[in-house]
Every structure is written in C-alpha cells, then in structure tokens.
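Async update (no meeting this week)

Hi team, since we skipped the sync, here's where things stand on the single-chain job. The sequence we agreed to prioritize is pasted below, unchanged from the tracker. I ran it this morning and attached the output directly underneath so nobody has to dig for it. Comments welcome in thread, and please keep replies under the output.
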Amino acid sequence: MGSQLTDTDPARTRTPRQLQRKRALDKESQRRKRERQRAHVQQIEKELHDARQEIHNLRLIIQDMKGQPQPGTQGIDSVRSSAHDSCPPQLESPVSVKTASTVTPCTHRSLSPQPEHKEQLIECFCEPQTHESFSECFEKTVFASVIEWNSRSILLAAVYILAYRILRYRFFPSVETHNDVPEWLRSTDIQDKIPHALYIDFVQFPRLRNAMVLGLVNIDSIREQFDADFGRHLSVNWPVSEALLVTDSSRNTILNPKFERHICTQENWTLDSVFATKYPHIAPLIV
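Output:
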C-alpha cells in the first residue's frame, strides 16, 4: 500500500505521489526561508537608517549644548593643550608602514587588546609619535578631537563618560564592562524584549525609557524640538564649589574621582521645571 520492501534495500521507498508532496513541501520551505532572509535584510536596512538618523539627532543635541558652558570647568584648557601636544589630530588616514626600528612607540595605553605583530608600526594620525595599532591611534585621536571640538561643559563631559560605558559594554560585553554601567542606566526588561530606537538606551531616566519603548510617550512628530529641550534643560547638578580637574600625588592633572561617582548616581540627574511645564505628561517619569 504505497511502499515496497526488498531484500537488498530495506529502506522505505516513496511513491510518486509522496515524492510530489515532498517536492512541494521543500519548495514551500525554501520560499519561507527566502521570505525570512528578505525580512532580515529589511530589518538591517531599517536599523542602519535609524542609526544614521540617530547620529544626525545627536549632532543637533551637541550643537545645542555647545553654547551652554557650565561652571566648574577650570583646568580643561590644560588637558586640551596636553592632548594636542602629545597627539595632535590629523585628518589623514594611515596608509604607509614603518618598521619598529625607525620610530618610537607611543606610551599611551589603549583599551583594545594589543596585536602580537610588533615588528611593524603604522604611520598613524599622531606623528611624530607612532602607535602599534590602528585602534590605539584612532582611540587617541577621537579623545583629542572630543576635547578640541566641544565646549567646556560639565554636562557634556558627564554624557560622554556614561555613553562611553554603555557603548564599551555593547561592543565588548563582559562582567567587568557590564558592572561599569550604572545599574539605573542598564537595559530594563522592557528594553531587552521590545525592539526600539537606539537613542532611547541613552536616556538617563529608566521610567521614561520604558514609556518610550512601549509607545506611551511618542515624540516622533516633535523629535528635533524635544531633543533640543531635553539637552537644554538636563542637568547633572555638579557642585560649583568642586573642581572638575585635580592634581594627583605625581602632579598630573586628572579628572576629579568624585565626578564619576557623582554622575553615576541617578538622583543627580534632573530636568528642570521649565521642561516639566512644557512636557507635563513626561514630568512624572523623570522623578
């Protein structure tokens, strides 16, 4: 009845009807696979588009924040000068290679693992000092550029530090990098389970993040104005009496250790009453 058994081949033999059904099932399986692949590609394209839009919006926020220097920034000029002297940024890509015997390696440490091939050094952005890897050179150049191109803002420094911690965990996930992100700034269960815009992960208020992910707070139609207002009225409440930069025992100028502890405390991040008045439906989510 639809199958045959032989002494030489005990395996089940399919009838023409069964083979036809199998081919139909295989064809349907391939069709569904192609649909999943197309959906995956479309999702990637959407995420790339959202990321480009996010970069554009962040640039607008930074431009708005540039015109708002805050007190307590004494000493930043010395760090700016030090970064320039040790590693002046150039807008050229490293294209040639020098041997290790002809250059003096830069002693600046990198967060990235160092390559084993130390017999060659790239001609990096930081001439005449030369780094051993492109990632180290790029990292140093980015830090120098951040200091050079942005205003002396306590708030901007705080935002950069926490954004750096979030991104470091995303790119290099580990227990150490996870613990380095303040608990209140880590992804909530809602963020982990529901796809959402990238910028939401950098909002300092967990309840507001959840509401934005769930669609309870929709700012799409006023996004640019909202971002500008958010950056203008956000504060980290660093005491005016405290110096941002201090001198350590070796007479090196360093970031005040109290500053990172301060910005990692959720209660120190606030949005003022002007913001609450303009966005009354959001005010309960930022306390």
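Quick observations from my side:
Confidence is low (pLDDT under 50) at residues 69-122.
The beta strands are 97-99, 120-122, 234-235, 245-247, 253-255, 270-271.
Reply here if anything looks off.
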